[in-house]
Amino acid sequence: MSLHRLLLVEDDTDMATMLAAYLQRQGLYVTLANSRASALAALKAGRVDLILLDVSLGDDDGVALCAEIRAAQDVPIIMVSALSADHQRMAGYEVGADDYIAKPFNPDLLLARIRAVLRRAGRAPSLSHRRRDGALTFQGWRYDARRDEVTAPGGWQVSLSSRETKLLRVFLANPLIPLTREEIAAALDDDEAAEGRAIDVLVGRLRNKTDPALIRTERGTGYVLTAEVTADEPA
Amino acid sequence: MSLHRLLLVEDDTDMATMLAAYLQRQGLYVTLANSRASALAALKAGRVDLILLDVSLGDDDGVALCAEIRAAQDVPIIMVSALSADHQRMAGYEVGADDYIAKPFNPDLLLARIRAVLRRAGRAPSLSHRRRDGALTFQGWRYDARRDEVTAPGGWQVSLSSRETKLLRVFLANPLIPLTREEIAAALDDDEAAEGRAIDVLVGRLRNKTDPALIRTERGTGYVLTAEVTADEPA
DNA sequence: GCCTTACGTAACAGTTTGTAACACGGCAGC
DNA sequence: GCTGCCGTGTTACAAACTGTTACGTAAGGC
Questions:
Q1: Which of A120, A153, B154, B188 has a Cα at 20 to 30 A from B200?
Q2: Who touches strand C, with Cβ under 7 Å?
Q3: What is the CA radius of gyration of chain A?
């Protein structure tokens, strides 16, 4: 029920087909383009929320195309490259890519990046629209939003403090997406201010009560929920 | 089944649909309007407790519309803007918006603002708006307003003191909305004054006689009824 | 390897909340 | 009036919650 339209610019047909199928299954509306010309045509044809742009585009140059698109309109762009060389990465950033991912990539990671970019662009339907309904399952754990109850894989019930619960909800709303301390604090407090090590300690406490492996540290950045989250039907 | 009626004035269909879905799940009754004309029509058509008004409204101007509505009637308004520029923000306030939120926003944050505005505006729908004679059902429990009787999920009858009953009614009138001790006291006493721990103790006693999970503590704030409330037809 | 920085976390302190126990007052019955 | 009972607020203390600090350790950069 996501309304995001994604334009996939990729000249390798096999890769494009596979990726498109995957992304469509994830709820994205995907348009394919295999060249600079067709990409620009697709852009002109309709609304696009995000562009996934391969750096190597046969005769065309992805980096140049990125800059070209950026100059014309404000659409978030994620660059995809077969080479993870840093200069390429930098080249991508300089022309205005919002993110960069190297082939071969983990599809889930790609999806996470896509969500993150869309979110930053303010067009993301977050998980929140299902949050109050059923329960969420992740890595064997279960969170019943209605009752604020957390159940461990074994069936044990875990009691979290209200702050810990809020934190868990923040992570569940953004699975696989790295969150900075600022973002977490903002989401927790409904307003302003992140200081000190409060978030670290809070994360530590949540880790202890659940599974330490659930939340991974992104050194220098923040924290990520490492599990995929699926919504159960409301019983 | 909250009785808050929210008018969402937004011309971006996707955004409107998404937001409406989200807000409806949060227990608000949402009416959509995509233009100045339809907004005014909706206002004329029925009671509205709160207006969520997008600043950018295609041909129409949200700020002007805000002022217009304000001049005509006293409905709380939250302005939504894609630009967080301060002058716009101020412009919104000056014409009488009760709050302001910038896109992209955290849905939970929006919800918190909505609740805050509703609370401030004292529009918490009172029991009087309901069929006074019917019974209310919540989380398996039942409250018969006519007889002041409370029935547990199992069918057992629970006897509450008069003060406890009043407290229960206050919560039932404001399901899912956090209430401060002051608000509760005001609603209980018909006249002001909240001091000491009276409310805490009262809540504790109500919890004991019903289901402790029904009323959750919002640390630093107050208490919330965690159940949705539905009105039964009078038997 | 060493050095710097970031992170994990135990211990602590300040608040807030839960609740048992008590005190007070009205009221019915004697 | 006296007495016991019930409902209610007050008090006091324990427990829970949460941010801060300090220090040890891990992770990278060089």
A1: B154
A2: A 197, 200-201, 203-204, 207-208, 212, 217-222; B 197, 200-201, 203-204, 207-208, 217-222
A3: 19
End-to-end CA distance of chain B: 20
Q: By the 8 A CB rule, do B146 and B191 touch?
A: no
Q: What is the pTM of this model?
A: 0.54
CATH classification code of A5-120 = 3.40.50.2300
pLDDT tens-digit readout, A40-97 = 877 776 677 888 888 777 777 777 777 777 766 777 888 887 654 433 444 444 555 6
Please determine whether the domains at A5-120 and A130-231 fall in the same fold group of CATH. no
Predicted-complex ipTM score: 0.56
* Architecture label for domain A130-231: Orthogonal Bundle (1.10)
For chain A, what are the domain ranges? Answer: 5-120, 130-231
- As assigned by CATH, the class of the B132-231 domain is mainly alpha
How are beta strands A99-102 and A222-225 bridged, if at all?
Answer: unpaired
A139, with CB counted inside 10 A (0-12, 13-18, 19+), is middle
